[in-house]
Design goal:
Pfam families: GT87. One of its GO terms (molecular function) is hexosyltransferase activity. The chain is built from 24 helices and 4 strands. It is an all-alpha fold. The strands form 2 sheets. It has a two-stranded antiparallel sheet. A two-stranded antiparallel sheet has the order 3-4. Strand 3 and strand 4 form a beta hairpin. Helix 21 runs antiparallel to helix 23.
């Protein structure tokens, strides 16, 4: 008699020869069930790889395009316009529209807030005054890393050119901010398509896993919430370059990603640990050196010529307090403890909070390094990368909703379990609903803070649960779907099937003498 566990267990992958594709309809219950309307799982005599056009890669890109279209439709409510009493067209954000319609995007308000709507401005040189005439008056500059700041500026210039041509009757017209949003969304879409492409290529024998990234609910909600798909594209292509044994190119791409959003630099940590274990340190040095050189090449011209503006990103991250959806705010709200520096005035630095954040992240990194060096079998690169980025998000004082996009390509490569990953992504994307109604305010029929924070806790627990699963599969490789199918580390590059030269052996327990 079978146990309930046996009845719900995922099917074992079929025996495959090296290089043979893995069909998710044969290994994933979710895909097997979804395939029933079109004939069921892949048959024994199916002609795999013979269609002249519809390869797994192109199917993934087509599905990603559909998801991006759905995301644009969701955000489009926030670029609608109306005519005011003076006959002028205005952006329709009346009656809390961004929150009620759940279409909020940072791209829209930043167009004017970062002075991108004005001619003659340049990021990191142009400044403005926040709180003018008050005790909290501050000089402000572009608050994003250099590559993202320049990305916004280029899109603003394209917007200006579009509006000029549309005024001449050659192109459709709209409010400049709407044009700016659409141009930005186009390039962010290209970046996510590159991410999906890179994930499919890195997955090697599991190209269909790219569909997990393509149809991610997080993409449908957050692809255009901010500019994070730029960084995911550089990070994913950096991992692909490493998988193809091109360490210098990998460093170049990770360096560009760090110039857009610092998180791709975190991937150098897992690479270091695994290269130490496999005796491949020189390859890591090439990657780290190229990443550093590229980051400096992008940043130094701005840092030397426009230093005050360049430092704004680092200054704001230092003085920024805990965000509403951070672990620290959850603790503070439900316990009433104000030990994380309490309420801050503008410009004040939350020193104690910064120390706690940095300390917890370093402790997590030390634990992940130990796992990487002490596990019985060398972990896969994607597994350690996922753990490091997840630890950064959980311990950080800021977890903006679009940051969850960072985890999507890493999770697909680290834990290719379709039902599990779609469940996590649905939970994470669903946090957007209580977030928007929390920002709407209770006075406007929004949700109280405890409802929002409850969803935040569920999201954090889901990510922690994924981390536990990854660690479990590291210590029990027979449970790892990648290794169960005969592969070692498809993203490992020079690490793939490499022999260990340095490990840390756990200290044996003392045996009591009777």
């Amino acid at each position: 008699m079978s146990s309930p566990t046996d009845q719900t267990a995922e099917p074992e992958p079929p025996s495959l020869s090296p290089g043979q594709r893995i069909a998710p309809s044969l290994t994933e219950p979710l895909v097997a069930a979804a395939s029933k309307p079109i004939g069921g799982p892949l048959g024994e005599h199916a002609a795999v790889g013979r269609h002249w056009f519809w390869t797994p890669q192109r199917v993934g890109l087509a599905l990603a395009t559909l998801a991006l279209v759905l995301c644009w439709l969701g955000k489009a409510s926030c670029i609608q316009q109306y005519t005011d009493s003076g006959g002028q067209n205005q952006l329709d954000w009346r009656a809390g529209r961004p929150y009620v319609a759940m279409c909020y995007s940072d791209i829209v308000p930043l167009y004017s807030a970062e002075q991108l709507d004005k001619s003659g401005t340049f990021p990191y040189r142009t400044s403005w005054i926040d709180g003018a005439g008050t005790a909290n008056e501050q000089v402000r500059y572009m608050e994003y890393p250099v590559l993202t700041g320049l990305f916004q500026w280029v899109n603003a210039k394209l917007t200006s050119a579009w509006v000029t041509v549309s005024n001449a009757g050659w192109l459709p017209g709209a409010l400049p901010v709407a044009v700016y949003f659409n141009i930005t969304a186009f390039w962010l879409s290209v970046a996510w398509l590159v991410t999906v492409w890179a994930v499919g290529r890195t997955a090697n024998r599991r190209p269909w896993d790219a569909v997990l990234a393509a149809l991610s609910p997080l993409v449908m909600v957050h692809a255009f919430t901010n500019f994070d798909t730029l960084a995911t594209a550089f990070a994913a292509t950096g991992l692909l370059a490493w998988a193809r044994r091109k360490p210098v190119l990998a460093g170049v791409l990770l360096g560009l990603g760090a110039a857009a959003k610092l998180y791709p630099l975190l991937l150098l940590g897992p690479l270091l640990i695994l290269c130490m274990r496999a005796g491949k340190f020189r390859y890591w040095a090439r990657t780290a050196g190229a990443a550093t050189a590229v980051w400096l090449a992008v940043n130094l011209p701005i840092a030397f010529t426009l230093n005050a503006g360049w430092r704004e990103f680092f200054r704001l991250n230092t003085v920024r307090g805990m965000d509403p959806d951070s672990l620290y705010n959850v603790i503070s709200y439900f316990t009433g403890w104000t030990g994380f520096d309490g309420p801050l005035q503008p410009g004040q630095t939350p020193t104690w909070l910064n120390v706690v954040v940095g300390g917890l992240f370093l402790v997590c990194c030390a634990g992940i390094a130990y796992v990487g060096l002490a596990a019985p079998v060398r972990p896969r690169l994607a597994q350690l990368c996922f753990l490091v980025v997840a630890a950064f998000l959980v311990t950080n004082k800021v977890w903006s909703p679009q940051y969850s996009l960072w985890l999507v390509p890493l999770a697909v490569l680290a834990i290719p379990r379709w039902r599990l990953l779609f469940g996590w992504m649905l939970i994470d994307a669903a946090v957007w609903v209580p977030r928007m109604f929390y920002y709407l305010g209770v006075d406007h029929k929004g949700l109280p803070e405890d409802w929002f924070l409850g969803f935040v806790v569920v999201r954090d627990l889901a990510v922690v649960g994924l981390c536990v699963l990854v660690i479990r599969e590291i210590y029990r490789p027979a449970l790892d779907k990648i290794r169960l199918s005969g592969d070692d580390d498809p993203a490992g590059g020079v690490l793939d099937r490499a022999r260990d030269v340095f490990t840390v052996k756990p200290r044996p327990r003392a045996v009591a003498v009777q």
